[in-house]
Amino acid sequence: MRKVINLEDLRDARTALPGSIGFVPTMGFLHEGHLSLVKRACRELDSVVVSIFVNPTQFAPTDDLDAYPRDLERDIALLQEAGADLLWMPNNEVMYPPDYQTWVEVGEITKPLEGEKRPGHFRGVTTIVAKLFNAVQPQVAYFGQKDAQQVAVIRQMVRDLNMPIEIVASPIVRERDGLAMSSRNTYLNPDERQAALVLSTSIQKAKFAYDNGERDAGVLRAKMEEIINAEPLARLEYVSCADYVSLAELDIIERKTLISMAVYIGKTRLIDNLILE
Ligand code: AMP
Description:
Helix 6 (about 120-135) crosses helix 7 (about 150-160) and helix 9 (about 195-210) packs antiparallel against helix 10. A hairpin with a 2-residue loop joins strand 8 (about 255-265) and strand 9. The chain has helices at about 5-15, 30-45, 70-80, 90-95, 115, 120-135, 150-160, 190-195, 195-210, 215-230; strands spanning about 1-5, 20-25, 45-50, 85-90, 140-145, 165-170, 235-245, 255-265, 270-275. The chain folds into two domains: about 1-170, Rossmann fold; about 185-275, Pantoate--beta-alanine Ligase, Chain: A,domain 2, CATH 3.30.1300.10. By secondary structure, the chain is of the alpha/beta class. Adenosine monophosphate binds near residues 146, 172 and 182.
C-alpha cells in the first residue's frame, strides 16, 4: 500500500493504479465498520484508495476536534491487511490552504435530523467529499449506512453536480451486543458503554412493533423515546421516523422509512438508524 500526503503525490499514485478505482473516505481511528467498506471495495473494483482526514469544517466550534481519536500506525496496518492499494492522508494545509474560499452546499435534504442539530455540519461534509472526489476521481465511492443522512446528502450532491461517481451504501457493522461501531465509542466509560445499548435496543423494539403491524410513526417514536428516557446516562437529542427519500417526518408509514436517532451518552453523541423496507 502506497501512502501519500500532498496532492501531486496523490495524483501520481492515483494515475499508476490499474483498472477501476473504488474510494473509501474516512476520518481514521478505523474499526470493522470502516474496514467492511474497504474490503467490499477491494472485492468489487480493481484498485482501492482510502483517505484519512479529520475534517475540521464539519465539526462545530464547540466540538472538541482535537480530542477526536487518532492512531495512524494502527490504521495503516489495518488498511494494509484489508487490501487497500493507496492511502491518502492530507493535512489541513493540503485541504484548506490559506485564503481557501469555496464551499459546496446541498439544500433541503441537509435541513432535518443531523443537519438541524449540527448546523454547518453537512456543508463541511459535502465540501470535503467533493474535494476528495475531485482529487481521487473514483468510479465508485463507499459510505456507511450508519450515517444515513450523509449518504442521502452525498447522493444528492453527486446527482446535482453531475459527478460521474456511483455511491454505494454499506450496512451498519455492530458490536456483538448491538452497539453500532463508531470511533466515538472509545470515549465511553464502562457504565456508559452499557447505557449506549439503548440506541440499538430501542430501534429493535420499534422494528419489532413494525414487524407486528404497527404503522403509526408517532407510536414508534414514543416507544423509542420511552426506552431512551428510562436510561439515566442517556439524553435524547432526537428520534425520527421519516420518509427514506425526503427525510420528512411521517404520521403513517406507507413507504420505505428511516428510523434514526441521536443520543448523548454522558458527553458522547451517538447516532443509530434502521431502514424499514
Ligand atoms: P468516519 O470515519 O466516521 O467519517 O466514517 C467513515 C465511513 O465509515 C463513513 O462512510 C461511515 O458511515 C462509515 N462507518 C462508520 N461507522 C460504521 C459502521 N459501524 N458500519 C458501517 N459503516 C460505518
